C-alpha cells in the first residue's frame, strides 16, 4: 500500500517557498535587481549575500551575469564594496530633462583638474593636490565636496593629520562610470607619462609633510 505522506515534501530541486531558503542560481541575478531597487543605501556584497541567503562568491558571480545583460536602461556601479544601479550614460540627456536638471551648473576647469587628481590618486590630501596644481585648492575642494563628488575617506598619519579625499558614488554617476577601474588612461602631457608625473608630484608633496610622533 502506498504511503499517503510520501509525496508531501518539495522535490529536491525545487526551492522552499517560505522566504527563508536561498534562491536558485538562475534566479539570483533577478533577485539582486529586486534587492538593489529597494535598498535605501548602496548595499555591500555581504549585505546582499545575507539578504539573498547565499555566499558572497555567488553574489559576485550573479553581478557579473547582470553586467553581461546589454540594452538595459541602467548600469551597475561599484564603489569600494558597495553596489548600486545608475541610469545608463546614453540616456543622460533625457534623464536630466525628466528631472529638470537641464540647467545644472557645469564644473569649471579648475574643478575638473582637481577632481581628476583626486580620482586618479586617491586617497590624496589638499597639500598633495596643491603641489600638483601649484595653486590654493581650498575653494575648489569645498565646491566638489558640496556637490557630493568627493568625500573624506581618512586622515594622513602626519603632523596635523590632514584629510585624505576620495571620490564618491555620485562621481561615478556624474561621469557614467561603472567603477574606478573604468577611468580612462591619462596618456602623455608634454611628452611625459601623465600618471607617472602625477604620482611623482604627490609623492614629493607627501615627503614634505613631517610624520607625526
TrEMBL record:
PANTHER family registered for this protein in UniProt: SEGREGATION AND CONDENSATION PROTEIN B
Keyword Cell cycle recorded: yes
Protein name (database record): Segregation and condensation protein B
Keywords: Cell cycle, Cell division, Chromosome partition, Cytoplasm
Keyword Cytoplasm: yes
Organism expressing this protein natively: uncultured Thermomicrobiales bacterium
InterPro entries: ScpB_csome_segregation (IPR005234), WH-like_DNA-bd_sf (IPR036388), WH_DNA-bd_sf (IPR036390)
One Pfam family named in its UniProt record: SMC_ScpB
GO biological process: cell division; chromosome separation
Amino acid at each position: 500500500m502506498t504511503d499517503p505522506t510520501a509525496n508531501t515534501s518539495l522535490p529536491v530541486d525545487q526551492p522552499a517557498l517560505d522566504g527563508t531558503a536561498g534562491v536558485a542560481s538562475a534566479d539570483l541575478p533577478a533577485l539582486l535587481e529586486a534587492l538593489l531597487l529597494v535598498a535605501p543605501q548602496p548595499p555591500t556584497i555581504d549585505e546582499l549575500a545575507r539578504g539573498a541567503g547565499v555566499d558572497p562568491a555567488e553574489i559576485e558571480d550573479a553581478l557579473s551575469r547582470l553586467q553581461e545583460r546589454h540594452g538595459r536602461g541602467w548600469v551597475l556601479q561599484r564603489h569600494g564594496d558597495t553596489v548600486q544601479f545608475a541610469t545608463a550614460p546614453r540616456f543622460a540627456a533625457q534623464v536630466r530633462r525628466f528631472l529638470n536638471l537641464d540647467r545644472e551648473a557645469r564644473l569649471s576647469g579648475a574643478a575638473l583638474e582637481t577632481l581628476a587628481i583626486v580620482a586618479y590618486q586617491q586617497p590624496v590630501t589638499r597639500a598633495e593636490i596643491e603641489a600638483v596644481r601649484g595653486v590654493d585648492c581650498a575653494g575648489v575642494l569645498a565646491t566638489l565636496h558640496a556637490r557630493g563628488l568627493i568625500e573624506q575617506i581618512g586622515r594622513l598619519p602626519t603632523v596635523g593629520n590632514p584629510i585624505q579625499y576620495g571620490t564618491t558614488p555620485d562621481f561615478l554617476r556624474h561621469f557614467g562610470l561603472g567603477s574606478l577601474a573604468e577611468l580612462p588612461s591619462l596618456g602623455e602631457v608634454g611628452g611625459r607619462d601623465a600618471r607617472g608625473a602625477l604620482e611623482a608630484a604627490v609623492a614629493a608633496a607627501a615627503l614634505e609633510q613631517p610624520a607625526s610622533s
